[in-house]
Amino acid sequence: PPVRVRLIVKDYEIADKEAIEPTLDGFFKNIRRHKDFQVTNHYATGAISNVVHKPTKSRLHIISHKHEGKADGGDVDVVHVDEPCPEKIWKASRRGMVTRSGMAWFTLTPVNDTNEDAKYIGWLYDQIYSRADGNRIEIIEGSTYDNVGFGATQEQAERWEQDQFGANEVATRVFGKFTHLAGVVHKSFNPKTHMLSANDFPV
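Now predict its structure.
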């Protein structure tokens, strides 16, 4: 039967230029002109948004974070989340997996650089990472050292920590650890602001 795959990326153009089209071309030699495939472009960017394998009718559907609130529709067998995404897109995609007993995998670094990142990482941690049981949800963690030929060396990581990043950011960027809650209370604690005296509660 046809296999339906949904790929969720942050940005259409960047993902298409740097990864999607080069990878597909590597397998099929110019995917856009291949006789066995029907390729649809995103209306605004020209990036690949849909690929159908004509003989089997299997489909790769690519959506970006801009689809938040518009991601419903269509059953899927596989969902691939590439980097943290909006919760609404995940929930819509998850609904599409129900009738086909689909599966999902997430490939990401839980970097917490912006308020937007913080929103995405928060639900990922609560709903996915913290619920890992080795059965329905399995976590595979790796460090940049495992990325042979492309990762950082120990010396580079130590230099990052000393020159640019704190220990929490190195834990995230190098080792893929969730550190989004680090310092939320203690680093901002001020006794003058956050403590009350007995005089504040007259008896």
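The beta strands are 4-9, 37-41, 48-53, 58-64, 78-82, 103-107.
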